[in-house]
Amino acid sequence: MEFLVNIRIKWPEGMSAQELERISVEERHKARELQASGHMVRMWRVPGRRENWGLWRAADATELHAKIASLPVFPFMDVTVHPLAWHPVDPTRPAEIDAC
Amino acid sequence: MEFLVNIRIKWPEGMSAQELERISVEERHKARELQASGHMVRMWRVPGRRENWGLWRAADATELHAKIASLPVFPFMDVTVHPLAWHPVDPTRPAEIDAC
Amino acid sequence: MEFLVNIRIKWPEGMSAQELERISVEERHKARELQASGHMVRMWRVPGRRENWGLWRAADATELHAKIASLPVFPFMDVTVHPLAWHPVDPTRPAEIDAC
Amino acid sequence: MEFLVNIRIKWPEGMSAQELERISVEERHKARELQASGHMVRMWRVPGRRENWGLWRAADATELHAKIASLPVFPFMDVTVHPLAWHPVDPTRPAEIDAC
Amino acid sequence: MEFLVNIRIKWPEGMSAQELERISVEERHKARELQASGHMVRMWRVPGRRENWGLWRAADATELHAKIASLPVFPFMDVTVHPLAWHPVDPTRPAEIDAC
Amino acid sequence: MEFLVNIRIKWPEGMSAQELERISVEERHKARELQASGHMVRMWRVPGRRENWGLWRAADATELHAKIASLPVFPFMDVTVHPLAWHPVDPTRPAEIDAC
Amino acid sequence: MEFLVNIRIKWPEGMSAQELERISVEERHKARELQASGHMVRMWRVPGRRENWGLWRAADATELHAKIASLPVFPFMDVTVHPLAWHPVDPTRPAEIDAC
Amino acid sequence: MEFLVNIRIKWPEGMSAQELERISVEERHKARELQASGHMVRMWRVPGRRENWGLWRAADATELHAKIASLPVFPFMDVTVHPLAWHPVDPTRPAEIDAC
Amino acid sequence: MEFLVNIRIKWPEGMSAQELERISVEERHKARELQASGHMVRMWRVPGRRENWGLWRAADATELHAKIASLPVFPFMDVTVHPLAWHPVDPTRPAEIDAC
Amino acid sequence: MEFLVNIRIKWPEGMSAQELERISVEERHKARELQASGHMVRMWRVPGRRENWGLWRAADATELHAKIASLPVFPFMDVTVHPLAWHPVDPTRPAEIDAC
């Protein structure tokens, strides 16, 4: 199942530049891992903001939560999950969806 | 440039089933055309609603408007466009984005 | 997977009492069918409103949409779907959730 | 009477990991107690968020408040209570509701 | 249990003055009945608007819904129900509430 | 004139338990005083929240402000005032309101 | 007591130009009457909109409602009333307000 | 003085294609007139919507209202006006603004 | 040109009573100055809140900003400006407005 | 492509006057640079607020983000980007837009 996920990041005020750098490096490593496993499919930046839209894949909401919560930046994220259904005109849909 | 587009459809109350069917058929034809030209990349249904999320590609907002406005259902659509920037961890990003 | 679904019903202004009665009877039949198949688990009325909260079960958002859209009142419904994940303290959770 | 309760948790910034662990353990004990007494019926996690939806049972809003306020995490919770009425198609409704 | 209820009235556009008068007369009769039975305790008008705030009493949300839905104007009402708990400083509270 | 007043309380993060206890005691004394003078008529707790609804009486908005601002918790309150007009079906209305 | 009143006007779709002209003339007559009686103190247009802000004076919310409801355009108005208290720095305040 | 103006257009449901064409032609003529007089400085389309952002110039809000209300589409427009002040870094600002 | 201005004040948490007193005294002096110069015409308190509505006069939005920003409390204010146009029924309007 | 950009600035509470002055000077230098390169076209102050509206030009949302993020005040900004399409009546539009 696919999910459209909006993530807004709000760093705590007192965080040092080193701590922020360390978490950012870990975040990128974890992101590559989630891409390799097929959970994080696409990721876009909202221009001008510390916010992104992502296309995620997971068996269900429980697995999706576990994957998002595994990100090092998770404690500083405000996450909104939009569940997605197959659309009859989506070019990548399986054949049986046409009949819906 | 990519755009995340949310479309809510509100059919006018008096529309006949035939008219609705005719427009829906035309809509699917137009959608296939926009997929073939690379403008409509993905399309998802919001479960339980006459609403979809789509990933669109266009040279700029002017071309995007022309493509969306060419849809037969356009007069009945409430459209919200979210401009998207490349994200450094997106798996499909061009190499030069890594340096941002 | 479980979903919390909020449904607001808005009858069109000109609908006759007979048409409304006919649809309501069909709606109850369909609701019983969805309960028998395990898709509609619980249903509550929001006091004072033509609105309900429901606990639904479906394989994914695509099946959920198909089930909701099969209701005779669907054309008059404004539906909001909240995807639900297992919570570690839920009394009905499977044993493996405790480890999350 | 049943209530649908949405709870968002916001930990204070300076809380130590030990303090957080201590409160979390106490919270799970209290939750089991509320389940055993029949007040906390179901509990779901909102994916990606420190937020849950719960189905609660209490004699009235006063008892519900007392039960929610007894949770160790209560000082850090933003709670919204939705009162629920029996719905004529709910599969668990008492027989006399059918006549409404 | 007490409930704070906000009611906004929106008359349908084509309603005749006679029909509106007939419903208004029936509404006042029904309101007196609900006051006599102790369900409608207080009623205030929001200045400048076709909207009121009311203090209602009912065994639970199901009875409250039945009472509100019995009003002749119900089909034209947008109702929001706020469940109320006893407050320790309320001058009319029962003695046992002081201990909460 | 009557006013419906919604009050949300937000304690500052660093307040000690003693300071909070001291203010709470003073608050209850002041509340009794306002009830004796007829300004605070009813007070309800919003279940699950540090929030209340109150029915207040004052000559006008200036006196109402003075009374609310005299509460010891005032610096930590977010207050919303709803002015109320007599409603023709209110059971406690003066006789001359019936003619409106 | 003074009130800040926001009024948005929404003419019904089928109203004839003559009907609209007739109501507008009556509205201006009534407005002059309310100014002469000291209830309508100031009136401003929100630029670009069928909306105004007005400064009104009335004994209380009940009188204010009666005055607003006497306007011929009232059935087509969406009204929001803001109760106003004297401010210590207002240049027109009575002397005793300085002490607040 | 400059104003940022957002205009959303909502055509009435029953309008004929001819009537819509006639108004649109008149609108473009009027728009050119307002550009020649220096009142309508820039005009942008919100992609996917019947909505525009415009940069307008007028002596004050009264003149701005008169100019916007002179547009043939005005009866079908929902207009929001944002007043603008000179910004010290604006490249077109007059010299005396630098000192602010 | 007149402006309706809403100001919400939020004092920073750590401010001492002396500092607050000093700023408040300076604020009243500055307010009298702005009244003498005709910029601050009226000022009302929103009951129960640290918020006011004011009627201001200025040549344009740039002068209005300079006057509001000159207030000692400005760093702690959340300000919303509503531009106002003359209304044909305003009792203080100049004669030429009647013709609009 | 043009973008309408709204920027709200929120300085952190503890920032010293010197630090704020240093960042402000750097901000003005950077702004002039962005004007010289044609990215920052116009800039307006929202009266009474630490907020501005700007007209920006960039190849796409990725370049726009890079330019906005290069501002020294960026860590303290809340930015909202509105993508803009050419409007047929804009006086500065290229000739080929007339045909849309």
What is the 3D shape of chain A?
A: elongated
Q: How much of the sequence of chain A is in beta strands?
A: 25-35%
The protein's oligomeric status is homodecamer
Order of helices and strands of chain A: EHEEHEE
Radius of gyration of chain A: 16 Å
Q: For the terminal residues of chain A, how far apart are their CA atoms?
A: 17 Å
| Largest sheet: number of strands, sense, barrel closure of chain A | 4 strands, antiparallel
Count of strand segments of chain A: 5
Mean pLDDT of chain A: 94
Number of helices of chain A: 2
Largest sheet: spatial strand order of chain A: 2-3-1-4
Most extensive interface, chain pair and sizes = A-B, 29 and 29 residues
Which range best describes the helical content of chain A: under 10%, 10-25%, 25-40%, 40-55%, 55-70% or over 70%? 25-40%
| Helix vs. strand class of chain A | alpha+beta
Low-confidence stretches of chain A: none
